[in-house]
Amino acid sequence: MVAENKFDADIARDFHHVWHPCTQHKDYETASPILVERAEGIYFYDRQGKSYLDAIASWWVNLFGHNHPRLNAALTRQLENMAHVMFAGVTHQPAIDLADSLTALSPPELEKVFFSDNGSTAVEVALKMSLQYWQEKGETRKTRFVYLNGGYHGETLGALSVCGLEIFRGKFEQVLARHLPVEGPDCFRCPYGLRRESCDAECFEPMEKTLRENHDTIAGVIVEPLVQGAAGMTMYPPVYLKKLQAACEPLAIHIIFDEVAVAFGRTGSLFVCAAHGLRPTFLCLSKGITSGYLPLSATLTTDEIYSAFYGAPRKLFIHSHSYSANPLACAVANETLRMLTENNFLESLQPKIAALRECGKQFDGIAGEFRQTGMIAALELVEKKRERFPSEKRIGYQIFLEGLKRGLFLRPLGDVVYFMPPLVITEEEIAVMMNTAHDCINTVLQRG
Ligand SMILES: Cc1ncc(COP(=O)(O)O)c(C=O)c1O
Predict the structure, then answer these.
(1) 224 CB within 6 A, ligand 1
(2) Which residues contact 284 (CB under 8 A, 6 or more apart)?
(3) Mean pLDDT score of the chain, rounded to an integer?
(4) With a 6 A CB cut-off, is 331 part of the ligand 1 pocket?
(5) In CATH, what number is assigned to the domain containing residue 405?
(6) Whole-prediction pTM
(7) Mutate which of 162, 286, 290, 297 for ligand 1 pocket (most atoms within 8 A of beta carbon)
């Protein structure tokens, strides 16, 4: 009874003072919020002790499960030495080690690492570096970025200006810098009637045209390689990226790979660019970099970019964050990278990737499409064929609520139910996760 009262009192204080991210508070208050008390492995637990399977890895960050002994130890070891120190004109071992590892594991052209503290700032840094590079080179007309419809790169104003999703940018349109949107791949509703497994990215044509016609004013192109996360885990083939590289390089256009969501094993490899032999000018990393422990991000780039900023005092890159390269975060990131690269960890994902695919078969006939790239799977629910449900039906939201009842934490993107669990999930747990989701979806769809 005491616990119950404390719960009510704490929730009342939450309602009174806390404003949650991307949350309609009226929904939140009516859906009996979860007060998370602790987390372990792929589960988190509320104050009443109920467990929730974290099917989306706490917003795509958690790789090795919650409360991992090795990550905890790396963090506490570092804590005994130093929690934080500023990073301008000062350096420290965890950051040096991390920069060393990231450059060793990513494509060889990426030699320099600029640290910041979240995915949006990793993108801001890439955009600003690209712009300043062209200014330093006297190419003052190169000030625009090309981005894909459906693309998402964070919600700060710079990142939002290259976001191709109306839901995020609509309310802020008036103050966003004018860049160049391009119709991107839409494999489920392919206008060419092709299949992503066998096409030659015929949909690259509008991109090719935009680059060719505007290259003298284009600084760079930004993409989420292979998976457009916030768009609803839409997935497209690597041939699109190969065409992008082939088009950009001769036109002197920077390529920004935003791998904030897809790096560190999510697609089955450490980095999409390295796995497909691609050479982006900038690589943005965050989320899984600390396996969900602490905020950290990195923007990797080439010596060519770096050298344009080197020399005269006025050429410096004027950009910083108070917590850039926080030593605790770097220490956990170093341990995360060790765990990702030892004991054939990435190879050990293959049976899990197969299990996701196998379990996905149960959605044949229920979902418009089941799609998968490595350890990311998604079901796009449709009213009929490829037609979306009317948004007022809130199908995805109802499935979220059904999941909570059954101890499954999903967070559908519109009517796309997706799975991006911690990589340490077992094959048995994958089956539980997807069978439970199947149950939730059936309940909601039968209700109509
Ligand atoms: C591809 C991509 N870029 C950037 C971001 C922004 O990251 P953050 O939420 O850490 O600012 C996200 C977040 O979901 C993302 O998916």
Answers:
(1) yes
(2) 119, 122, 123, 125, 126, 153, 256, 257, 258, 259, 260, 297, 298, 299
(3) 97
(4) no
(5) 3.90.1150.10
(6) 0.97
(7) 286
